[in-house]
Amino acid sequence: PQNTHQHTLTIEMHMRISLGLYLKRLLVGGFHRRYEIGRNCRKEGMDQSHTPEFTMMELYQAYTDYEGMMRLCEDMMRTVARKVLGGEAIVQFGDEVIDMEKPFRRATMTEMVKDKTGADFDALDLPAAKLLAAEKGLEYEDYYSKGELLNLFFEEFCEDDLRQPTFLIGHPVEISPLSKKDPKKPGYTERFELFIAGKEFS
Protein backbone atom coordinates (compact mmCIF):
# COMPACT_ATOMS: atom_id res chain seq x y z
CA PRO A 1 0.00 0.00 0.00
CA GLN A 2 1.06 3.55 -0.68
CA ASN A 3 0.11 6.97 0.70
CA THR A 4 -0.24 9.47 -2.11
CA HIS A 5 -1.84 12.78 -2.96
CA GLN A 6 -4.26 12.54 -5.88
CA HIS A 7 -3.83 15.84 -7.72
CA THR A 8 -6.98 15.79 -9.85
CA LEU A 9 -9.28 15.25 -6.85
CA THR A 10 -6.95 17.02 -4.37
CA ILE A 11 -7.37 14.28 -1.77
CA GLU A 12 -5.04 11.96 0.14
CA MET A 13 -5.34 8.29 -0.77
CA HIS A 14 -3.96 5.07 0.68
CA MET A 15 -4.05 2.13 -1.70
CA ARG A 16 -1.78 -0.26 -3.50
CA ILE A 17 -0.69 0.78 -6.97
CA SER A 18 -0.47 -2.75 -8.37
CA LEU A 19 -1.39 -6.35 -7.68
CA GLY A 20 1.79 -7.58 -9.33
CA LEU A 21 4.32 -7.44 -6.49
CA TYR A 22 2.40 -9.91 -4.37
CA LEU A 23 1.63 -12.25 -7.26
CA LYS A 24 5.29 -12.29 -8.34
CA ARG A 25 6.32 -13.31 -4.83
CA LEU A 26 3.88 -16.21 -4.95
CA LEU A 27 5.22 -17.22 -8.37
CA VAL A 28 8.79 -17.31 -7.06
CA GLY A 29 7.54 -19.23 -4.02
CA GLY A 30 6.28 -22.10 -6.16
CA PHE A 31 2.67 -21.14 -6.95
CA HIS A 32 3.06 -21.35 -10.72
CA ARG A 33 -0.30 -19.95 -11.77
CA ARG A 34 -1.69 -16.99 -9.86
CA TYR A 35 -4.30 -14.34 -10.55
CA GLU A 36 -6.18 -11.73 -8.58
CA ILE A 37 -9.06 -9.39 -9.22
CA GLY A 38 -8.50 -6.42 -6.95
CA ARG A 39 -8.55 -2.70 -6.36
CA ASN A 40 -5.74 -0.34 -7.39
CA CYS A 41 -4.93 3.33 -7.11
CA ARG A 42 -2.86 5.39 -9.52
CA LYS A 43 -1.67 8.97 -9.22
CA GLU A 44 -2.92 9.88 -12.69
CA GLY A 45 -5.42 12.22 -14.28
CA MET A 46 -9.08 11.48 -14.87
CA ASP A 47 -11.05 11.11 -18.09
CA GLN A 48 -13.57 8.70 -19.61
CA SER A 49 -11.04 5.88 -19.68
CA HIS A 50 -8.99 6.66 -16.55
CA THR A 51 -9.94 6.90 -12.90
CA PRO A 52 -7.53 7.04 -9.95
CA GLU A 53 -9.22 4.07 -8.26
CA PHE A 54 -10.15 1.04 -10.32
CA THR A 55 -10.52 -2.74 -10.36
CA MET A 56 -8.22 -4.86 -12.47
CA MET A 57 -7.25 -8.47 -12.98
CA GLU A 58 -3.58 -9.41 -13.06
CA LEU A 59 -2.24 -12.90 -13.72
CA TYR A 60 1.08 -14.69 -13.92
CA GLN A 61 2.11 -18.10 -15.16
CA ALA A 62 5.48 -19.82 -14.94
CA TYR A 63 7.09 -21.83 -17.75
CA THR A 64 5.59 -19.85 -20.61
CA ASP A 65 6.46 -16.74 -22.62
CA TYR A 66 4.58 -13.75 -23.98
CA GLU A 67 3.26 -15.85 -26.88
CA GLY A 68 1.64 -18.19 -24.39
CA MET A 69 0.24 -15.29 -22.40
CA MET A 70 -1.25 -13.77 -25.56
CA ARG A 71 -2.98 -17.08 -26.33
CA LEU A 72 -4.31 -17.23 -22.77
CA CYS A 73 -5.53 -13.62 -22.95
CA GLU A 74 -7.24 -14.10 -26.31
CA ASP A 75 -8.95 -17.30 -25.18
CA MET A 76 -10.11 -15.67 -21.95
CA MET A 77 -11.55 -12.60 -23.70
CA ARG A 78 -13.38 -14.73 -26.26
CA THR A 79 -14.69 -17.18 -23.63
CA VAL A 80 -15.98 -14.43 -21.32
CA ALA A 81 -17.67 -12.63 -24.23
CA ARG A 82 -19.39 -15.85 -25.32
CA LYS A 83 -20.61 -16.54 -21.78
CA VAL A 84 -21.92 -12.99 -21.31
CA LEU A 85 -23.57 -12.83 -24.73
CA GLY A 86 -24.89 -16.39 -24.69
CA GLY A 87 -23.53 -17.02 -28.19
CA GLU A 88 -20.76 -15.82 -30.47
CA ALA A 89 -18.22 -13.30 -29.19
CA ILE A 90 -19.45 -10.53 -31.48
CA VAL A 91 -20.19 -7.29 -29.66
CA GLN A 92 -22.18 -4.28 -30.81
CA PHE A 93 -20.28 -1.27 -29.48
CA GLY A 94 -22.02 1.94 -30.51
CA ASP A 95 -21.98 1.92 -34.30
CA GLU A 96 -19.20 -0.67 -34.44
CA VAL A 97 -19.26 -4.46 -34.48
CA ILE A 98 -16.32 -5.91 -32.54
CA ASP A 99 -15.61 -9.47 -33.68
CA MET A 100 -13.74 -11.50 -31.07
CA GLU A 101 -14.39 -14.78 -32.86
CA LYS A 102 -11.68 -14.09 -35.43
CA PRO A 103 -8.02 -14.58 -34.45
CA PHE A 104 -6.71 -11.40 -32.85
CA ARG A 105 -4.36 -9.40 -35.05
CA ARG A 106 -0.72 -8.99 -33.98
CA ALA A 107 1.40 -6.07 -35.15
CA THR A 108 4.53 -4.29 -33.96
CA MET A 109 4.62 -0.66 -32.99
CA THR A 110 7.09 0.10 -35.78
CA GLU A 111 4.85 -1.60 -38.38
CA MET A 112 1.80 0.35 -37.30
CA VAL A 113 3.60 3.70 -37.27
CA LYS A 114 5.14 3.04 -40.68
CA ASP A 115 1.77 2.00 -42.18
CA LYS A 116 0.02 5.07 -40.79
CA THR A 117 2.66 7.79 -41.20
CA GLY A 118 5.34 6.41 -43.51
CA ALA A 119 7.95 6.90 -40.77
CA ASP A 120 10.29 3.90 -40.58
CA PHE A 121 11.77 4.03 -37.08
CA ASP A 122 14.01 1.05 -37.84
CA ALA A 123 15.81 3.26 -40.36
CA LEU A 124 15.81 6.53 -38.36
CA ASP A 125 18.46 7.73 -35.93
CA LEU A 126 17.53 9.94 -32.97
CA PRO A 127 18.10 13.36 -34.64
CA ALA A 128 16.05 12.29 -37.67
CA ALA A 129 13.26 10.98 -35.41
CA LYS A 130 13.16 14.29 -33.51
CA LEU A 131 13.08 16.27 -36.75
CA LEU A 132 10.22 14.14 -38.06
CA ALA A 133 8.29 14.54 -34.81
CA ALA A 134 8.64 18.32 -35.08
CA GLU A 135 7.48 18.22 -38.71
CA LYS A 136 4.41 16.25 -37.62
CA GLY A 137 3.62 18.83 -34.92
CA LEU A 138 4.29 16.50 -31.99
CA GLU A 139 5.43 17.97 -28.70
CA TYR A 140 8.25 16.15 -26.93
CA GLU A 141 10.95 16.79 -24.36
CA ASP A 142 14.61 17.19 -25.36
CA TYR A 143 15.55 14.09 -23.37
CA TYR A 144 13.21 11.78 -25.34
CA SER A 145 14.87 8.68 -26.78
CA LYS A 146 14.02 7.20 -30.17
CA GLY A 147 11.84 4.60 -28.42
CA GLU A 148 9.89 7.29 -26.59
CA LEU A 149 9.36 9.15 -29.86
CA LEU A 150 8.13 5.95 -31.51
CA ASN A 151 5.60 5.53 -28.72
CA LEU A 152 4.53 9.16 -29.14
CA PHE A 153 3.90 8.54 -32.85
CA PHE A 154 1.91 5.41 -32.02
CA GLU A 155 -0.29 7.16 -29.46
CA GLU A 156 -0.93 10.14 -31.72
CA PHE A 157 -1.50 8.45 -35.08
CA CYS A 158 -2.32 4.76 -34.51
CA GLU A 159 -3.96 3.97 -31.18
CA ASP A 160 -7.47 5.21 -31.99
CA ASP A 161 -7.53 3.16 -35.21
CA LEU A 162 -7.15 -0.17 -33.39
CA ARG A 163 -10.84 -1.01 -33.43
CA GLN A 164 -10.81 -4.82 -33.84
CA PRO A 165 -8.89 -6.86 -31.23
CA THR A 166 -5.18 -6.28 -31.82
CA PHE A 167 -2.11 -7.31 -29.86
CA LEU A 168 0.47 -4.53 -30.00
CA ILE A 169 3.96 -6.04 -29.73
CA GLY A 170 7.52 -4.85 -30.26
CA HIS A 171 7.61 -2.14 -27.60
CA PRO A 172 10.88 -0.18 -27.25
CA VAL A 173 12.96 -0.94 -24.17
CA GLU A 174 12.78 2.71 -23.05
CA ILE A 175 9.06 2.43 -22.28
CA SER A 176 9.09 -1.20 -21.09
CA PRO A 177 10.49 -1.53 -17.56
CA LEU A 178 10.74 -5.13 -16.32
CA SER A 179 9.97 -6.55 -19.77
CA LYS A 180 12.17 -9.23 -21.34
CA LYS A 181 14.37 -7.94 -24.14
CA ASP A 182 13.75 -9.40 -27.58
CA PRO A 183 16.86 -11.45 -28.44
CA LYS A 184 16.08 -11.17 -32.16
CA LYS A 185 15.59 -7.40 -32.25
CA PRO A 186 17.86 -5.28 -30.03
CA GLY A 187 16.16 -2.22 -28.57
CA TYR A 188 12.76 -3.92 -28.34
CA THR A 189 11.00 -6.20 -25.89
CA GLU A 190 8.80 -9.28 -25.70
CA ARG A 191 5.77 -7.44 -24.38
CA PHE A 192 2.18 -7.07 -25.54
CA GLU A 193 -0.86 -4.87 -25.03
CA LEU A 194 -4.33 -5.77 -26.23
CA PHE A 195 -6.32 -2.98 -27.86
CA ILE A 196 -10.04 -3.09 -28.66
CA ALA A 197 -12.08 -0.11 -29.89
CA GLY A 198 -9.08 2.16 -29.50
CA LYS A 199 -8.59 1.33 -25.82
CA GLU A 200 -5.97 -0.74 -24.03
CA PHE A 201 -7.37 -3.84 -22.34
CA SER A 202 -4.18 -5.54 -21.14
How would you concisely characterize the structure shown here?
The protein is α+β, with helices and mostly antiparallel strands.
Textual characterization of the structure:
The chain is α+β, with helices and mostly antiparallel strands and 202 residues long. 30% of the residues lie in helices and 25% in strands. It is built from five helices and ten strands. The strands form four sheets. It has a four-stranded mixed beta sheet with strand order 7-8-9-10. Strands 1-2 form a two-stranded antiparallel sheet. A hairpin with a 2-residue loop joins strand 9 and strand 10. It starts with a strand and ends with a strand. The model has no long low-confidence stretch (mean pLDDT 92).
- Sum up the overall morphology in one term: globular
**Share of helical residues:** 25-40%
Tell how many strands the DSSP assignment holds.
Answer: 10
| Average pLDDT number | 92
Query: How do the helices and strands follow one another from N- to C-terminus?
Result: EEHEEHEEEHHHEEE
Describe this protein with a few key phrases.
202 residues, alpha+beta, 10 strands, 25% strand, globular
SSE order and pairing:
Blueprint: E1 2-6, E2 11-15, H1 20-28, E3 33-41, E4 53-61, H2 66-85, E5 90-93, E6 96-99, E7 105-108, H3 109-117, H4 126-135, H5 146-157, E8 166-169, E9 192-196, E10 199-200
Parallel strand pairs: 7-8
Antiparallel strand pairs: 1-2, 3-4, 5-6, 8-9, 9-10
